[in-house]
């Protein structure tokens, strides 16, 4: 995932339809009402088209924080210091502690055991995440306002379902994900309706 800026025009998101990083940024753009262009980068074709590019820039969580600071619209980080710390903790747990272990490059190295590997580490991560969310959640991950934590949660639950994790074991995670998927910003950013979504995965 890479976001570039052309002068003062629209940002350009170089991403992949099913990339968690790309999806986080798409959700943030939708919540903030930011218009942007997309350049699909296939992470599989020809060994991964991303290797043809030498991107330097933000990681998705850092970009969401940048966007929150510079763009008007709903806050993605709460004003309250305690809640803001909780949002960052949950976001880091997902984006740094769970998702990288089933990243495409990692599971390609794992090989034939990739399904079991990914299932194990997502399950283990959700075992840590569920009790935290029980303490912090209201309507959404932290209280009753959508935040960066929610932006991180939904793509991770999508991955969990891809790798056959029983999300029903985690009632708070399941409830939050279902509520968030009813929100327009999460619908329009979903991997099933992106420019590079394969026909057999399109909604």
UniProtKB/TrEMBL annotation:
Pfam families: GST_C. Residues 80-199 form the GST C-terminal domain. Residues 9-102 form the GST N-terminal domain. GO terms for biological process: glutathione metabolic process; L-phenylalanine catabolic process. GO terms for molecular function: glutathione transferase activity; maleylacetoacetate isomerase activity. GO terms for cellular component: mitochondrion. Signal peptide: none annotated. InterPro entries: Glutathione-S-Trfase_C-like, Glutathione-S-Trfase_C_sf, Glutathione_S-Trfase_N, GST_C, GST_Zeta_C, Thioredoxin-like_sf. It comes from the Eukaryota. Belongs to the GST superfamily. Zeta family. This is Glutathione S-transferase zeta 1. The gene is GSTZ1.
């Amino acid at each position: 995932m890479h976001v570039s800026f052309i002068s003062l025009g629209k940002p350009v998101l170089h991403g992949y339809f099913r990339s968690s990083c790309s999806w986080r940024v798409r959700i943030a753009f939708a919540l903030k009402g930011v218009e942007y262009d997309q350049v699909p980068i296939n992470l599989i074709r020809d060994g991964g088209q991303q290797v043809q590019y030498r991107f330097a820039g933000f990681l998705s969580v850092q970009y969401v924080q940048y966007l929150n600071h510079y763009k008007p619209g709903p806050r993605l980080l709460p004003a309250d210091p305690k809640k803001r710390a909780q949002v960052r903790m949950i976001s880091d747990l997902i984006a740094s502690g769970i998702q990288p272990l089933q990243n495409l490059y990692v599971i390609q190295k794992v090989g034939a055991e990739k399904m079991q590997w990914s299932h194990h580490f997502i399950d283990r991560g959700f075992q840590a995440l569920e009790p935290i969310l029980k303490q912090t959640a209201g309507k959404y991950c932290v209280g009753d306002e959508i935040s960066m934590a929610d932006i991180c949660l939904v793509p991770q639950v999508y991955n969990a379902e891809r790798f056959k994790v029983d999300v029903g074991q985690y009632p708070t995670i399941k409830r939050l994900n279902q509520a968030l998927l009813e929100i327009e910003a999460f619908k329009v950013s979903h991997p099933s309706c992106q420019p590079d979504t394969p026909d057999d995965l399109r909604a």
